[in-house]
Amino acid sequence: MLRKTSLQNLSELSKKLNLLYYEYDQHQNKFIVDSRYNKETTYNELIKLTYELSKHKIGFFTDERSNIVIASKCHLLSPLKQRLKNISYNFKGYRKNIYVLSDKQVNFAKNLPLIQTQVIEQDIDLTPYDALIFTSKNGVKYSDILLPSEWKKIPSYAISKQTAKQIKDLKGKVAFVGKEQHGDEFAFELLEHLAGKKVAYLGAQKIVSNMIDILKEHNIDCDYIPVYQTVCREYENKIKLPSDSIIIFSSPSTIECFFKKVSWDNSFTAISIGRTTAKYFPNDVKPIIADSTSLESCVCKALSL
Questions:
Q1: Alpha-carbon Rg of the chain, whole angstroms?
Q2: What is the edge-to-edge ordering of all strands in the sheet holding 173-177?
Q3: CA distances from residue 221 to 81, 129, 181, 217 in whole angstroms, order as listed
Q4: φ, ψ for residue 3 (rounded to 5)?
Q5: Contact criterion met (CB below 8 Å) for 264 and 287
Q6: Fewer Cβ close by (within 10 Å): the C or N end of the chain?
Q7: Number of C-beta neighbours around residue 1 at 10 A
Q8: Residue pLDDT, tens place only, 136-175
Q9: Closest by alpha carbon to 160, among 139, 184, 174, 181?
């Protein structure tokens, strides 16, 4: 097993390389490929990542799913042992009651859709802007509905790799991807990139970070344009979950809607997608924060418990 400092170095290497399609999971000690994309899309990152690992003399091999497994010593039986580990990991995952509070499908998680998003119909003129900021996949999705061609002509600045992939999937221009993946820290990352530009931030009706204030305090000309809103789904009765359930909260809205419909049990575990969301929990609920701001990372954290 690699030392803890080496695991930290691997996390830093992942940030340094700005990987979109591979995400480092320190609990499994491997770089997990986004299986939704074909090998042609992920190949360049595979080469870049394995080159860097080789350059730093870090042992690795590729498992049957094209994940890159870190191993201090590799031998002929390493892939077979990893396959058995994967089977054990899958078995553990399917036995747990892990809930995502939306309809997004994530491996090992059950869906409990308590929120839904809706477009805010409006006319938007993007011609004055030199740059766009996105802090969620939904911001990109609903911008594409409202402005199917206009937004794609303007460089986009994404808070996370998940948001950046959505921009790329819809044929937009990714100019920058945040490394810290949290609203306030992302604002400080943007300062040098957005100096002298007129910027539009396209996002949710409710903002939960101080990003716009930080940008304006540093003389960045930024307008906020809400393109969607999040509302609670209607259920007639209270929802009862099994004991020891692990619930993933991806936004303050999921917290609000969850506690309207579900009574908290002390056997439950809450996982927050980020530090900003974690601030919105009731005082008696102490969430665990995921390693990165993606639902996949939240599920990995749940499986590590």
A1: 20
A2: 115-119, 221-232, 198-204, 131-134, 155-158, 173-177
A3: 55, 10, 22, 10
A4: -65, 160
A5: no
A6: N
A7: 9
A8: 999 999 999 999 999 999 999 999 999 999 999 999 999 9
A9: 181
